[in-house]
Amino acid sequence: MSEILKIDKLSFKRSEGESILKDIDLLLNSSETLGIIGPNGGGKSTLLKLIVGLLKPTSGQINFSGQLMGYLPQTAHTENVFPITIDDVLDFSVLRHKGKLNKKTVLELVGLTKPTSTLMTKLSGGERQRVHLARALMSGPDLLILDEPTQGLDSTGQDQLLSLINKIKTEFQTTIIIVDHNINQLIKHCDKILCLNRTQHWHNHKDLLNKSVLESIYHCEFEHILLHEKEELGEHHACDHDHHHHDHKESK
Amino acid sequence: MSSLTDFIHYDFLLYSLIGAILLALASGPLSPLIIAKRQAFMGGAVSHSTLLGLALGLWWIETQNTLLLFLFTLGTTLVLTLILARQSFKEKLPEESFIGIFYTITMALGILVHSQNAQGKGDLMSYLFGNVLMLSPEDLMIASIPTILSLVTIKLLWKKWSFWAYDPEGAQVAGHPIKRWHYLFYLLQTLIIVSGLKLVGIVLIQAFLLIPGHFALKISKDIKSTYRNSLIFAVVTSIIGLYLANLLELPAGASMAVVQFIGLAMTTLMLNLKERGLS
Predict the structure, then answer these.
(1) Residue A224 host element (H or E)
(2) How many CB pairs under 8 A join A and B?
(3) Which pLDDT does position A247 carry in this prediction?
(4) Is residue B167 within 8 angstroms of chain A, CB to CB?
């Protein structure tokens, strides 16, 4: 397996000086799947934006040795003012790089059966997510980066999407980075796990991920994390714990 | 002067017709993008900032020298627009607040400069509301520059710019030069606004930049036809507006803006009625 992404001592501060990420190291080989977990505000989406080049690091290096990246943002900040169809969205992905896959193949892969002339505004949130995933796949990226792709989907939808991601990995040997709140699902589907809470991170083989590591990252009891995971699926619980960032010492 | 043939018989009417068509051809295809990229307020800021360049130009340059006045106003407005474009690209605070400050301060400075130095050297009011009947062949030459640039840019980049409007982050990740596009987009708007000063004025140019796109986005079924419909709407309503202004002896710029609005209002009404009839 060849090395596809190497991150060295990556740090990112906001312009006002607030530290979001500090000294992140990461190594990812081709065909591996990395799951990133951590509390809200822990820097997960920031790390992905740094990798795809939407943000510039304050210090450190990101070395991507592949040719193309595919990116599915947390909530695609799309402006549906133009009458844009599924066809158009897929065309957009091949305006700069020639597509390795055709539209029919990617739409079958993501399980979308609607006619390609359908307007994006007529699709449900899950269907739009699938179209954007299909767009990310069109150019046949070496590295596919997915920021909370299961957001807004029910548990069946989440299972289907994660199975689909596995299928993509198997069929195209694509390296995948996925951020999600669903810890159990990520542990099940990913080869590596990165736990991230701003300056604190833990990154190793997932077998070494245990209750105490998760508690140190999330700053709460493991049972609370699982309860919050259920909440993501629509099962709410009464809890006044602040799961957002706390100041703490760095530990690896 | 009440017939269509007047536009052939009288040079000043023919020039006004050509000027109106050139402005419509320049602003029509860009208009849907201005709306989709939520830049309507920015267009207003650029158009009002021309007042400062114009006031300085009227102070320093002979008003008879149209080309030099145009180039000076364009140069000054471009510098101001570059500042606006740069700030709007990197500003963390809401863009509207910066545009609002820019808008009022450049206009206020323009009025101050004109009141102190340029009074009697050109009617600033005619630049606020335009005077299409005063166009010269030189003005038409100037107006053709943004028209050609706008048409060529949209012809070459319409799909890429639609992607940029739809998903700016996606376009950036795909490797498109969005910073360059951002500045080109501002440049085109500035060129259209400055060249339209004499034609419809600082205030009414906004109608040309917004109403055709609004109309096209309401009625179009695909991206390509949105640009086409916006262009056709801008040209047709400008011709009708100019004809009515001539027929009823009304101010031309205001007539064109009102005809555009009536066209949009009637379309909205018809679409609403159609929707109710179908449901």
Answers:
(1) helix A222-232
(2) 77
(3) 38
(4) yes
B220 contacts on A by Cβ (under 8 Å): 83
For A9, phi then psi, to 5°, come to: 45, 45
DSSP state of A208: G
Average confidence (pLDDT) over B240-244:
93
CB contact under 8 A, A92 and B163: yes
CB contact under 8 A, A82 and B221: no
Buried b (16+ CB within 10 A) or exposed e, A172-211: bebbbbbbbbbbebbeebbbbbbbbbbbbbbbeeeeebee
Measuring CA to CA, which residue among B36, B37, A128, A124 is closest to residue A136? A128
Q: Among A79, A89, A97, pick the best mutation site for testing chain B contact (most B Cβ within 10 A).
A: A79
Regions in chain A scoring below 70 on pLDDT:
1, 75-76, 152-153, 198-252
Asked if the C-beta of A98 comes within 8 angstroms of chain B's C-beta atoms, the answer is: no
Element (H, E) at B48: helix B40-60
CB A171 within 8 A of CB A251: no
Least Cα separation, residue B221 to chain A (angstroms) = 6
Instruction: Identify the pLDDT of residue A249.
Output: 37
Nearest to A83 among B38, B92, B226 (CB): B226
Please state which of the ranges A95-109, B10-24, B132-146, B253-267 shows the lowest mean pLDDT: A95-109
| Chain B contact present for A71, CB below 8 A | yes
What digits encode the pLDDT tens for the residues B16-40?
Answer: 999 999 999 999 999 999 999 888 8
Q: Which of B36, B174, B221 sits opposite A96 (nearest CB)?
A: B174
Q: Which residues pair with B40 in a beta bridge?
A: none
* A123 in B contact zone (CB under 8 Å): no
Q: What percent of chain B has pLDDT over 70?
A: 91
Task: Check CB contact of B93 with chain A, cutoff 8 Å.
Answer: no
Secondary structure letter of residue B93 according to DSSP: S
CA distance B257 to B200: 9
Nearest Cα to Cα of residue B152 among B26, B18, B10, B268:
B26
pTM confidence score: 0.80
As a residue count, chain A comes to 252
Q: Is B249 on the interface with A (CB under 8 A)?
A: no
Residues B144-182: tens digit of each pLDDT = 998 999 999 999 999 999 999 998 888 888 889 999 998
> Inter-chain contact A78–B166, Cβ cutoff 8 Å?
yes
**Cα–Cα separations (whole angstroms), residue A128 to A134, A152, B170:** 10, 11, 14
